[in-house]
Design goal:
284 residues; Arc Repressor Mutant, subunit A; D-Maltodextrin-Binding Protein, domain 2; 3 domains; elongated; LysR_subst-bd; HTH-type_LysR_regulators; transcription
Length: 284
C-alpha cells in the first residue's frame, strides 16, 4: 500500500474516467487498470464498477474514501513540514530594502534570524520604491521592505505607520510647518521614484514647491538643507539619530512601512521565517 494508490482512487472518484485519470496522473489506461486490479487483490475488495458514463467507486470503496482523503491531507502536510525543515537548513534569501530600513531595521532582524538559521545566506539589495517593485515583479528579490504607496497588485504586510516631517535650516521655526509654506521657500527634492510618499503628499495637498535641487540620496538632501540651500520633507525613519531641525507637517502626513511580496506561493519557508521575525521585532 502506498500513497500513489490513494491518489489514484481519489482521482477516479473525481473524474469517473480511467482515461482522464490516466492523463492527469501520468499513467497509461492499461496502467490504471493494472493498478486497480493490484489494489483490489491487496485489499481483497472490489473498487470500481462500470457505468454508462465511465466508472464509479463501489460502495466498499466509497466507505474507504474518507479515510483515503484524510490520509492524503496528512501526507500533504507532512511534505510541507519536510520542505520547511529543508528550507530552513540551507539556501538563501534576497531582500529588497530602502536604505533607511536597511540601516535601522534589518540589523536587528538579521541578527536574530542568523542565530536561528545560520546556514541560510542573506543578500540585501538597496533601492528606491520603483526599483524594489521591479525586482519583486521580476523575481530578483524574494520580497521587499518598502512603503505602501501607489497602486500595486502585490501583497503587503503593514508594519509601522510613521510621520513625514518638514526639515528646515531655520532653527527659529517653532511648531508644525504648514505644507503650503513650502511654495515660499527653496525646496530640496528627491528624484522622481525615489520617495513616492513625499511626492504623493505634495500632490494631495496641491503644493508645487520651488525645487532648488534634486538628489537621490537622503544624506545628500540633508547636507543641502544643513547648508541652508533649502528645506525638504523626509520620513521619520530617515531622520532617526540625525541632528537637524524637523517639524510635523500641517496637516499631518504619514507613510506605512512593511513588506511587499508577489504572492504567498513564491515565499519559501525561509522567507516566511524571516518575515515572522521581522513582525515580532518591528510591530508594536
Amino acid at each position: 500500500m502506498d500513497i500513489k494508490q490513494f491518489l489514484l482512487l481519489e482521482d477516479l472518484n473525481k473524474t469517473k474516467s480511467i482515461t482522464s485519470s490516466a492523463q492527469r496522473l501520468g499513467y497509461t489506461q492499461s496502467g490504471v487498470s493494472h493498478a486497480i486490479k493490484k489494489m483490489e487483490k491487496e485489499w481483497n475488495i472490489k473498487l470500481l464498477k462500470r457505468t454508462n458514463h465511465g466508472v464509479e467507486l463501489t460502495s466498499e470503496a466509497k466507505y474507504l474514501l474518507p479515510y483515503v482523503q484524510s490520509t492524503l491531507v496528512q501526507f500533504s502536510r507532512f511534505k510541507e513540514a519536510l520542505d520547511a525543515i529543508n528550507g530552513l537548513t540551507k539556501g538563501s534569501i534576497t531582500i529588497g530594502s530602502y536604505s533607511s530600513i536597511a540601516m535601522h531595521w534589518l540589523p536587528m532582524i538579521l541578527q536574530q534570524f542568523n542565530q536561528m538559521y545560520p546556514q541560510i545566506q542573506i543578500h540585501v539589495r538597496e533601492g528606491d520604491y520603483d526599483e524594489i517593485m521591479q525586482w519583486i515583479g521580476q523575481g530578483i528579490v524574494d520580497f521587499g521592505f518598502v512603503s505602501q504607496s501607489g497602486q500595486s497588485n502585490f501583497a503587503f504586510i503593514p508594519f509601522q505607520k510613521e510621520m513625514l516631517y518638514a526639515v528646515v535650516p531655520d532653527t527659529q521655526w517653532q511648531g508644525p510647518f504648514p505644507i503650503h509654506a513650502l511654495e515660499q521657500h527653496p525646496y530640496i527634492a528627491s528624484e522622481i521614484g525615489v520617495d513616492n510618499d513625499v511626492a504623493a503628499t505634495l500632490h494631495q495637498a496641491g503644493v508645487k514647491p520651488h525645487v532648488a535641487c534634486y538628489c537621490k540620496e537622503d544624506a545628500s538632501i540633508l547636507a543641502m538643507v544643513k547648508q541652508g540651500l533649502g528645506m525638504t520633507i523626509l520620513p521619520e525613519l530617515i531622520l532617526k539619530d540625525v541632528d537637524i531641525q524637523k517639524h510635523p507637517l500641517d496637516p499631518p502626513a504619514y507613510r506605512t512601512l512593511g513588506i511587499m511580496y508577489k504572492s504567498e506561493d513564491v515565499l519559501s519557508a525561509a522567507d516566511k521565517a524571516l518575515i515572522t521575525i521581522a513582525k515580532q521585532i518591528i510591530i508594536k
